[in-house]
Specification:
- Keywords: Hydrolase, Membrane, Protease, Transmembrane, Transmembrane helix.
- It is a single-pass type II membrane protein.
- Pfam families: Peptidase_S26.
- It catalyses: Cleavage of hydrophobic, N-terminal signal or leader sequences from secreted and periplasmic proteins.
- This protein is of the alpha+beta class and 241 residues long.
- It has a domain of 153 residues: Umud Fragment, subunit A.
- It contains four helices and twelve strands; from the N terminus they run ααβββαβββββββββα.
- Strands 1, 2, 3, 4, 9, 10, 11 and 12 form an eight-stranded antiparallel beta sheet that branches. It has a four-stranded antiparallel beta sheet with strand order 7-6-5-8, with no helix packed on it.
- Helix 2 crosses helix 3.
- The radius of gyration is 27 Å and the shape is globular.
- The N terminus is likely disordered.
Amino acid sequence: MTSEPEAAAPAVTRSSRRTAKSTKRQLPLWVHFLLALVLVALLRNFVAQSFYVPSGSMIPTLEVGDRVVVSKLSNDVTRGDIVVFNGTDTFAAGTLERFTGTFGKAAAAVASVFGVHLNERDYVKRVIGMPGDHVVCCDAQGKITINGTVINESYLVGGMQPSLQPFDVRVPAGRLWMMGDNRSNSADSRAHLGDPGGGMVPVTDVIGRPVFRYWPLGRMGTTGSYASDAELAKIPAAATK
């Protein structure tokens, strides 16, 4: 008895197998969107963040409308550095809600992607006094002294006084004395001497340092030497008692 020939099984090519696998593995569009948001939030929270300069307190170093990228990769702060910091508890007098912790910061970062800033208030100033520094304005020549050393601030506009407001402060441990480069139009540590904390900004509130200006296009480039000051960095620390 002759058996009937078996029907040939349909051929399965490699391309069809790959197509089947890719179809099974394809994620919904909303998952891709969510992953993109999480990636943006992580980069913004831990690597770099873009900031807009809204005032003229740092003229001529930073102009109104400048947009800069701030690096968060290093926590080291040196006297003379320009830094961006969260002033919620200091310059904003604690009037805004503070979001802390990993989840709180991540939520704030995700919300900022949509333009929601969750009551954060950030400032950009120059670090003049480090923890322990004795900062005084002004000496007989109208100069600021740090730990008894007179400083010559090359980043100020020619002829501008270092400060029209006298002060004599000792920067506490873990705090910074901040001043804008446009001394006649900067609400910095001097403006908060009478507030809790005496206008001193916690080192832990520093977000990072500007490393690149991408707008306006005519002044686009790395921040270079203007975002720090070698002379201020070399001043000896205050003698410990």
